[in-house]
Amino acid sequence: MEANKNKLFHKFLLLWTGEFISAIGSGLTSFGLGIYVFQVTGKASATALVTLLAFLPSLLLSTVAGVLADRYDRRLLMILGDSLSITGLAFILICIMQGGAEVWHICIGVTISSVFSSLIEPAYKATVTDLLSEEQYTKASGLVQITGSAKYLISPVAAGFLLTMSDIRLLLIIDICTVFVTIASTFAVRSGIQAKSYERKKSFLGEFKDGWNAISRKRGVLVLTVVGTLITFSLGFIQTLILPMLLTITDSSTVGYCETIVATGMLLSSLLIGILSIKKNYVKTLSLSLALGGVFMALVGVSENLVFICIAGFLFFAMLPFSNASLDYLIRTNIDNSVQGRAWSLIGLISQMGYIGAYAIAGVLADYVFTPLLLEGGALAGSVGKVIGTGAGRGMGLLIIVSGLLLPVISIALYHMKSIRSLEKVTTKMMEIGI
What we know:
It contains 19 helices and no strands. With 435 residues, the protein is mainly α.
């Protein structure tokens, strides 16, 4: 029995290694395309459009992909997702090699890739459950989180270095090659696991309805889900604008180092939470971390000094795991375990719609509203411009400041909502009676 557990864990490690390498490759492409589009167009709106189309299909198809992962061979879905996602990358690469890709070429490529990539994550997470025993989940969860952070910690530095020797074509080729590694590792894992047959008790619409009922049954859970949408809306601005803002100050290699430094804040605070854990005052922790995160996010846009930006960005990212962990716990402990899968897929869809809204308007606002205000002679050049400076990147900085200050407002409102505070009372009561 123990030997079989170890064998299955080794299979998980093989699968995880493939996904880790693939995540680095995806990060290379994401970073490289952001720089390529901004350098070609000089527009934050073009960069935001590519970001939107790389994210939107996967988000909209996530609930469908989750149902598919519960009905069909999960390893086969991963192989299909990885294999077909290459077509989008190959399309972009061919366009660039034929003389340069237009923005619309890149939009088509990332959309194709995103559509097929949507099959991978639900199937991968479910495969972890297939392979491991309950006592191995925590160890696996830590490794999975490392995979998620790889594209922010490793990829930007690697991409920045590679771009000093070559161009975006090299990054795309590396990304395509990493997908083949993932496919090979998935095939190796699949060969030793029998595909499970899952009973289809309800239609997709019926399962969707169950997820919605689980969320709406408690007002506090529904409110937290909506609050999550507002939070992602605010975060979407810095995600979209930080790269083009930094490119107005420095080169792509330095931008890579800066992104890695600030992302380290998330890694360190995640490790701290993993060691010490949060045991009480979840609403207070959520509110405080959101408020401080918003202040640090606003500080990212205040200055053009790279050291200051990196420090503020590091502190901003360090606050996110505290918010995420508290929000996750409050929701998870107030939803019945039998519907958690369906509920979380729907919560993810609703809460991340904030990103879609931010990606859709951040670039347009930066290019056509905020940037003109802070150019020489602009309406705010003589007032706000004296504090944060004037020039091409200062409008994006001001928009980051404004969106950052939205988070403390949200945190204050959240802390005083009875429906949300009641979620913690239920959790506390369950702990007291030993549930």
